[in-house]
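Researcher: Here's my situation. A collaborator sent me these components and asked whether they could plausibly form a single complex. I don't have experimental data yet, so a predicted model of the whole assembly would be a useful starting point for our discussion.
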Amino acid sequence: MKSICAVEGVYAAGIKEGKFGLALIRAKGTAAAVFTKNLFVAAPVILMKERMENGFLDGVIVNSGNANVYTGEQGLLDARRMAEIAAEAFSTTPDKIGVASTGVIGRFLHIDIIEDQCKRIAPLLKHDEEAGINAANAIMTTDLFPKHAICERPGFTVAGIAKGSGMIAPNMGTMLAFIYTDADFTKDELKSALLVAADRSFNRVVVDGDTSTNDCAFITATGLKGKADFGEFCSALEEVCISLAKQIAEDGEGATKMIEVTVRNAPSEEDAAEIARTVVGSPLVKTAVYGEDPNWGRLIAAAGRAGVVFDPDAVTVSISDGDVTVVLARKGEILADDKIHPDALLKAKGLMHGKKIFIDIDLDYGEYSATAWGCDLTEKYVEINGKYTT
Amino acid sequence: MKSICAVEGVYAAGIKEGKFGLALIRAKGTAAAVFTKNLFVAAPVILMKERMENGFLDGVIVNSGNANVYTGEQGLLDARRMAEIAAEAFSTTPDKIGVASTGVIGRFLHIDIIEDQCKRIAPLLKHDEEAGINAANAIMTTDLFPKHAICERPGFTVAGIAKGSGMIAPNMGTMLAFIYTDADFTKDELKSALLVAADRSFNRVVVDGDTSTNDCAFITATGLKGKADFGEFCSALEEVCISLAKQIAEDGEGATKMIEVTVRNAPSEEDAAEIARTVVGSPLVKTAVYGEDPNWGRLIAAAGRAGVVFDPDAVTVSISDGDVTVVLARKGEILADDKIHPDALLKAKGLMHGKKIFIDIDLDYGEYSATAWGCDLTEKYVEINGKYTT
């Protein structure tokens, strides 16, 4: 089973009607969540930041098609009403319901549609693969494919679904992730594990650098498989989050290639991550990858403006398609150019034809590494986001 | 006279042959400069950071077509050689020569071409409008038009030339500016005035957010008109730098519209500038402007992720074409949408047809303002930067 219902105690249902979708996921357990850092936050995020303090969920309700942002008091009332609707369906109380929204900013929710959809799908809640897939489909907006990830470890399973990243979509952005495990952990353990995993996955995806008002990731532990090793769990959770993050990068608007940037031997993991994010987010790097150009000048120029101190003369830059690796420049020496090293340049150009491009930047200035994911910048991105009108 | 030779004591010459251009500007006086903050810096920047300590220039030599970056010891020797070549032409010593380069990264300079071009244009150095225009043309790479600015004040003049911004160009990026005044100031006065003016102009232009390895701005005061009021000079210098910055934004690669974002009533000028830069640099804002969509959801989402603390409920957002202004949202209330305020939305859409779009974000959370400039993001930008190959 590939989706969230591979986790014991997780029941899902979903429906998508035109641009309005609704997912219900019932899973009783300790829970934690992380939210967008944008100052402008959606009404459900305001509500959840407070509610998640109690560290327990009986399930979540998620609508797509309307983000419930910039909707004032009415928006908060609507988010609360969503919790009530789901609580009724799950026979519990609204304070044990997670609420999330994604879609257009600045419109009031059609709460009647949500209520109607909920009534129709609540009887369909199931603990099987199809149910998880339906839920993942229901939360999509402009995503081209649903995102599932699963990691099975001895004694427990971690699985999650997600939808498209950041503000990639025209007014319809948002990254949402719902992750489950049947291992038993306290809310504090879940929170600390999720913070680290999200930082190493979702927070390292750059599609266009815009951060949504609605981003959130929830984790619920049903505990039905009992206690598990915390380190083992953290590693499984990170694996699931990274898989979802990479799928989000691959599905970036208009993307033709996935870009993975790894920065190695940095003074700290934070520094490595900052450089990796800056490189993968650089419009010049993104367009070079689109044009299949191994333009290492743009790579070092982007690395150099990340605000991290390192020794530019110590840096080695290479690219790979996953099989073949070409070192482009090492410690101030150019190793791939059209004059002195035309063969290496040709080889580098060849491997840029792949669908996944791996960029490796070795700072030789410390011992920490970090990886970030993104996608190329294409005319299609401009078309999608420029031609869309309010 | 519209170019730098309007300043007493400034003589210029320039030549452009294919992609290789050379400008000579002779102007004897106190001088100061500001440089790129990128860790990877061009050889001439390394040289100039040290040389400009003495605060005096007899002139500058600038080549286009090769950035002299990632060229190691040879690059430094070449930058020094450029200073020698110009010193010979100006009958002075190399330590009084400013050197700047723009063009491709990772290639050794064709110093023979530079020497030959210098020999041919040195006899053409003139104190007239055409000479200034020739110099501005010579430093262009992918710029579509040369950039001149002048401000005449009682008793003195400030004038400058510049070339394209940031890393906007395919491997050929860089913002260079050469500014002159005939007022008399010390190097410390020039330095402090230039730091403030550059911060309020060049540092507030975002074309694609990439920072070049070669960016620099030089100012020389010939002093031929004697002492002037320092405050008056600072204001004239800022006017010239802002004019050049706006021209750079207008000439962004593939741009069809100039975007000016003003953030008002912020806790500090720095905060206001950070928000203005974030909004004007947002790919979603840039594509919305390209698509002529008054998409205020993207404006507030970008403002909210700038890393500045303010009260989202106090914000007012409006747009203008310079004549007509439409308030889109005020303190949590939507004032232009397709449901309740369709007339205002229609009016807002209408003024998006202009070539210059002014965005005003009033935080009502302090008393400081800042403006940033940029341009829209178009398929043409992707084409220019994606289709270019090393």
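Model: Some features of this prediction you could bring to your collaborator: Residues 230-250 of chain A form the longest helix (21 residues). The first strand of chain A starts at residue 11 and ends at 17.
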